[in-house]
Structures are given as C-alpha cells and as structure tokens.
Amino acid sequence: MGRMTLETDVHVGAHPHHRHGWWWKTLLGGFLLWVVTIIVTIATQNTNLVPTIILIGSFLVPFTVVLFVIERVTGTVSTMQLITAFFVGGVLGVLGASLLESDLRPGAGLYLLVGFVEELVKGVLLVVVGWRVRPKTARQGALLGATVGAGFSAFESAGYAFNAAITTRGIDLSSLLQTEVARAVLSPVGHVLWTAILGAVLFGVAHGRPRFRWAWSVLVAYVVVSVLHGLWDSNSTISTLLAFVFTGTPFSAAQNGYVPSSLAGVVTTLYIAGLAVVSVIGVGVLVGVLLHYRRQARRLDARQHAELGAWAGSPPPHPLR
Predict the structure, then answer these.
(1) DSSP letter at 170?
(2) End-to-end Cα, the chain, rounded Å
C-alpha cells in the first residue's frame, strides 16, 4: 500500500508529457533547416527568405534551452507557462530594457549600466513568472531563470542579426550569418547564465516557503550578475585596450578609432580569452550557488526530521484540568 502511494505521488509530481532528448533533436533538426534555408537563399537570391534565416538562427539555441528546461522542471510549472515566459518575457524584457536604456549616454560605465538595467528587467519578470511556482528551490529558480534569459536572448539576437544584415549596399548575408553564429554559440553563457544565477538565489532563499522573501544574498546576486554582464559586453573594449598595453603600442597608433592591423590577432585572442574567463566565472558561481542551497536544504530537512522524530517519541501532553 505504501509503495502504491509513493508511486502515485511521484507520478503526480512529474510531468507525464516529458520526453527526454527533444532538446538536442530540435537543435540538430533546426540547424539543418537553417543550413538548407541559407543554401536556397544563396541559390535563388530570394531576399524574402532572409527573415526566415534571422528567426531560425536567433531562436534555435534559446528555444532549445526552453525544451531542456521543460524536460527537467517539476512541481506546478506547466509547459504553457514556460513557453509564455519565453515569448512574453522575452518581448517585455527587450522593450523594458530599451525604454530604460534610451537615456543612457556613451561613456566608460555604459556597459555596466546596461548590465544593471537588463538584469533588473529580467529579475522582475522572473519574480512575476515564478510567483505561484511550487516548490521553490534553487534548481527550479535556475531553470526558470534560464527560460526568461533565453527569451530575452532570442529577441535581442534577432535585432542584432537584422542590423547586421541591413547595410547601405543592401543585404549583407555574410555579416548576418557571422552575427547569428557568434550569438548562438555564446547565448547559453550570456543572458541564460546570468538569469539562471539570479533565479537560483531568488528561489533558494525562498526554499520551503510559498512566497518569495527578501535577503541580502538576492541583492548580492543581482550585483554579481550585472557586473558579469557588464564585463561581457565591454570585453571588446577591454581586449582592445589590453592589446595596446601588452604590445607597448601607443594609443595614438589608432587611426580614426580603428585598431592597427598588426594588433588584430592580439585583440581577437584577448577577446576570446576574456569571454572564456567571464563564462567560467559565471558557471562557477551558478554551480556554487546550487551546491550551497542543496546543502542548506539537506540540513533543513534533517533538522525537520529530527524534530519530528523527537515529537513522535515524546509522551502525549496531559489534558487540561
């Protein structure tokens, strides 16, 4: 009887529609469709297919993240909620970020300010999406955060791809493809990673409670992901400055804001190294947060079991006289 109850509980808690492996099948199939669309576009010179290239290239990896989450999330989160969080959250995220960033002025701290603005917008959306989610655990928060970040990344990438394609000489397909490939490869360690970290802390603090609660660790997580975001966006500028410093080249050698061709290889190497460093730090932070809240949850569960056992072993209270 106890075994039947346990199996029933597990069945109710899990999503019966989960089919593990759809995320990588979709990634592979979508990539093939993207390649075929490019070939047909080049062969026919049909510019009507350019939006298709932009949409497939911009949404393929982020939507694959959503499928990955769908196969692993538990509790009260439905597939429709995740899809809604991806699309609606992504649109509202880029709209909100665009409005808040419209008054920002170029300067040394621009990228850092952009990081704080965009992570704030995604954090608010994450709270709205996860308000009624049960149970609230760090893992659930990381998965939901990755979904919101993936939506933001998809719509933002579509905008970058569109800008790369439209030039004064017409449609630049080569620039479009380079932009899409770069952003697709980096998207899992960009917006997806930053919001996953924030979600893990936000939900981890609320572990075992029906509502979110405030803690200084939430503010710390927000500052950390915003700084990482800012470093990621400013990596191009940082790598260029470091190339001048490391090679001993005077800054006056830059002509009309362009880096001398002799430094191009050094700048590229430093740029890739910078992205790798920020990515490793971000992944390390996420893993550390998840492990911390997992240990904390185990200690809490052990304490509750101990208290329950002590209560069960104590004599019944005397009735009131």
Answers:
(1) E
(2) 40
Q: How far is 163 from 56, CA to CA, in rounded Å?
A: 16
Tokens 């360690």, residue located: 189
Q: Which of 300, 282, 289 is nearest to 140 (CA)?
A: 289
pLDDT in tens, the chain (321 residues): 444 433 333 344 445 455 678 889 999 999 999 999 999 999 999 989 999 999 999 999 999 999 999 888 887 788 888 888 899 888 888 888 888 777 666 655 788 888 898 899 899 989 988 888 888 889 999 999 999 999 999 999 999 999 988 888 888 899 999 999 988 988 888 899 999 999 999 999 887 677 888 889 999 999 999 999 999 988 888 888 888 787 777 766 666 666 676 677 788 888 888 889 999 999 999 999 999 988 887 877 666 666 666 655 555 555 544
> Measured between alpha carbons, how far is residue 278 from residues 162, 273, 281 in Å?
27, 9, 5
- Alpha-carbon distances, residue 177 vs 34, 55, 182 (angstroms): 10, 12, 9
Residues 6+ away with beta carbon under 8 Å from 63: 26, 30, 86, 150, 154
Place of tokens 């579509």: 158
Q: Are 45 and 176 in contact (CB under 8 A)?
A: no
| Reported pTM | 0.84
Query: Contact, 12 vs 75, CB < 8 A?
Result: no
At residue 258, φ and ψ (nearest 5 deg) are -100, 145
Tell me the one-letter amino acid at 276: A
CB of 34 closer than 8 Å to CB of 56: yes
The two three-digit tokens of residue 244, written as one number: 């001048």
* Element spanning 166, H or E: strand 166-167
| Residue 299, both tokens | 């200690």
